[in-house]
Amino acid sequence: MLIKRLKRLIEIKEKKKEEKERLLKEVMESIKRTEKEIKKAREDYENAHKSLSRGIIEGGDFSQLKDYLFYLEEKEIELEKEKLGLSKRANELKKEILLIYREIRKLEILRDKELSAERKEELKKLQKRLDESALRSKENLL
Fold first, then answer.
1. What is the DSSP letter of 46?
2. Distance between CA 108 and CA 7 in Å, rounded?
3. How far is residue 91's CA from residue 85's CA, in Å, rounded to a whole number?
4. C-alpha 130: how far from chain center
5. What's the rounded Cα separation, in Å, for the pair 103 and 128?
6. How do residues 6-56 score in pLDDT, each as one tens digit?
7. Dihedral sign computed on CA atoms, order 81, 82, 85, 87
8. Domain containing 38 — which CATH number?
9. Is residue 36 exposed (0-12), middle (13-18) or buried (19+ Cβ within 10 Å)?
10. For 58, left (φ over 0), alpha (ψ -120 to 50), or beta?
């Protein structure tokens, strides 16, 4: 009975671990996408800054370009914050996966010990029956 419970607990923990691993994979993909967006924002900023320093710009264009540069700076800051949050979430998930793995390992050890104890008990019963059978056959011979 205990062995069945332990097996069921192990199955549940395995499913939980798989779910956390799936979430971790999604978070890591989000981090990669965010890094690409950060890279693109930096490239856009550099390109806009280069066009600002290239030549004579009229007042309206200068204002638009300046606003665009501010927008890109803000976007990069927001993306960096998002990446930081995603990285924290990824670290939390890694810790949770490690804890679940340890729990699974402990449950497997308990299950194995219980199986071993059960086998020993069965062997004792078998040996007892064999001894009784041997005694009966010895009595019958006498």
1. H
2. 8
3. 10
4. 52
5. 37
6. 999 999 999 999 999 999 999 999 999 999 999 999 999 888 888 777 766
7. negative
8. 1.10.287
9. exposed
10. beta
What is the reported pLDDT for 139?
Answer: 78
Cα separation, 142 vs 138, in Å, equals 6
The pTM of the whole model exceeds 0.85: no
Structure tokens at 38: 């950060």
Domain extent, residue 94, equals: 2-141
pLDDT at 104 > cutoff 90: yes
> Which residue intervals of the chain are DSSP H helices?
2-54, 59-141
Q: How many domains does the chain have?
A: 1
Tokens of 77: 């800051």
Quick one: how far is CA 69 from the chain centroid?
Answer: 38
- The secondary structure of residue 57, as a DSSP letter, is -
